Structures are given as C-alpha cells and as structure tokens.
Amino acid sequence: MGNARILRDVIISGLCLALLSMAMEATTKVTSQPFGKMPDGTPVEIFTLGDGAYEARIATYGGVLVSMKTPDRNGKVTDVVLGFDDLAGFVRNFNGTSDAYFGAIIGRYANRIAHGTFALDGRKYSLPLNNGENSLHGGPRGFNNVVWKAKPIANGVELTYLSKDGEAGYPGNLTVTVRYTLTKGDLRIEYSATTDKDTVVNLTNHSYFNLAGDGDILNHQLTLHASRFTPVDAGLIPTGELKSVDSTPFDFRKATAIGARINADDQQLHLGHGYDHNWVLDRKGSDLEEAAELYDPRSGRMLKVLTDQPGIQFYSGNFLDGSIKGKGGKPYALHAGLCLETQHFPDSPNHPDFPSAELKAGAHYHTVTVFSFSTR
Ligand code: GLA
Prior knowledge:
Oligomer: single chain
Largest sheet: 9 strands, antiparallel
Strand content: 35-45%
Bound molecules: alpha-D-galactopyranose
Structural class: mainly beta
C-alpha cells in the first residue's frame, strides 16, 4: 500500500513537472521597444514575439507585421514577409500613391466598396474614394494608417483602436481589438469589435508572403479550398456571380504553381493583372478551417492559413513594379510577394446575397485567422 502510494506520488509529480516544462516551453518571449515617431511626434512601438526559431515583430503603427522569421527545412531562418526596415518606410508608403498596405491591419472595410457608397438601415453612406471610383481598404486613412494602443499579453500583443462615429465615412463608434499571438510557427490573429450604431466591418491582415525570402512567388505552390470565386469588373468589384473554378486558372483545389497559369488568356486574369480575386471558401461549419496552403519547394517552407471567414483574397503582387524599395533597399519587383487576405467578400454591403458584413449596435464582431508556418 505504502509503496503504491509512493509510486503514485512519484508519477504525479513527474507528470506535473512534464506539464510545467511544456507550459514553460510554450511561453513565447514578448518584448517591446521604440520603433520611431510619427510625423506629428506620436511615438510608435514595436513588439517582438519570439518562440524558438520563429519570431514575429508587430508595430503599433497600422498593427503592421513588420517581419516574420521562420526556418527552412535545414533550419536556416529567413524573414518571409515584405515591408520596410523602419517606421518611416511604412509611413511614406501608406501615405503615398503606391500604398501597398504591407503587413497592415485593414479596416474598417477590407477590400473594395463600389463607388464608396452603401445603404444601411435606409440611410446612404458615402466614403472617401481612393481606388479609381471605389473605396479600398477603409479609404485614404484606414486602420493601417493609425497608431494603435498596445499592451503585452501571454505569447503576444493586444492592439486596440477606437474608430470614431463618422471616421472615414463609416457610422458608429467602433472599438477594435486585435490580438497577435505566436506559439511555435503559429501566428494567430484574433479580431474583435463592438459598435454603438449599426455599421459594416471587415478586418484582415495584408501581409505579403515570400516563403523563399527573395525572388518572386511564381514557383510557390498554392492550394485554395474553394470551388468558387467572385468574378470582378474592370474596377475589381464583384459582378455578384459566384463562379465555379472548374476548368479555369482559378482552380487551386490541388496544389498548383502560381506561375503555371498566371499569364493564361483569361478575361478575369486580364482584369486583375494576375490574381487579385476573392475565393468563396468551401466551409464545413463556422469554426477555424484550413483555407489555403502555400509551399515553396526550394526552401521547404509551408504556410497554412486557417480562418473562420467566408472568403480569401489571393493577390499575386501585381502592382509591384520595382519602384518600391523595401527591406535592405531591395526593389520589390512584380510578384515579389503574395497576399492571402481572409475576409468577407468585397463590396458585400452592396450585395444582399453575399454573407453579411453588417455589425449591429451592441453586437460583437469576432474572427480568427492563423498563419501556421512549418516545413516539409
Ligand atoms: C489589395 C487589392 C489589390 C491592391 C493591393 C494593394 O489586396 O485587392 O488590388 O490594391 O491591395 O496594392
């Protein structure tokens, strides 16, 4: 009896130790430091989340994912997102005519709203236009262009921003919280928001990935768990059709090199100058599900995108033309990176048959996307 009890105690304390060391191992180191000052003097911080070979750095300006270091199949660590070395680079780009939204949190409405207008509760709203005759990514001063409040949390950082009633043309005081956490190769982004008036919300992250760390992304193999996409007009506004990807260059249901069909003679590819479309995810339920998988055969790096959102915008970096000098002064040439923006469909406020992006006064907006890095 006595021996059995001793044995039991030994086993229990062993288990406790194992659990404790697992918990300690899972704790990501979170530090912060100044990243510079905005032109008006507002200080900007940068948070570093480190877990083993994986490291994410997030700025309070725009909630930008400034860098994401991941190992390749041989353990060599490289930064796999596009951007700039310093705050000034982001501020200049996000306020210029070739705004590329590198790594930023996008809101209040990610993607396009046709003619910058929509109706809600019988009232018409007009947004400032910044993309031809349309509003893109929250307009000229979106969530990418503001300094967020920040505090460290377990394994990450919590950012908050109050978008005031009428700001950028949208109704309602919207309090937004974005939590970035890193555990091993999983960068989890959790978005929450509440409003005091009915409004529309569509938040995403606009990181440009290049799993090789340089060159272009045409040899990356992409899988999209989507049987349909939303074809667009010349202004990249959805026509309203949910079109089957069958026998089109938009069929990524099996892993396919991005470059394999990007130059095909296809009207939708011409309109997008490549891929710049929203795919309708084949969802089983409403929880986190795998939406996309990106694989770079050269480095062995893999990125899985999991989300609870109905759509994903795959943008193949078609507007990059070498004129933007990014990290290390490197010009970002055509297709230097690609975006996988989990989201509600573009222009949903004007498409009653699309999943609704409306947030009712007092209701909670909550969505999660995980960028999961590994190697193969
Ligand atoms: C998006 C759009 C693209 C382009 C980029 C930024 O994802 O869909 O058309 O505007 O942002 O350059």
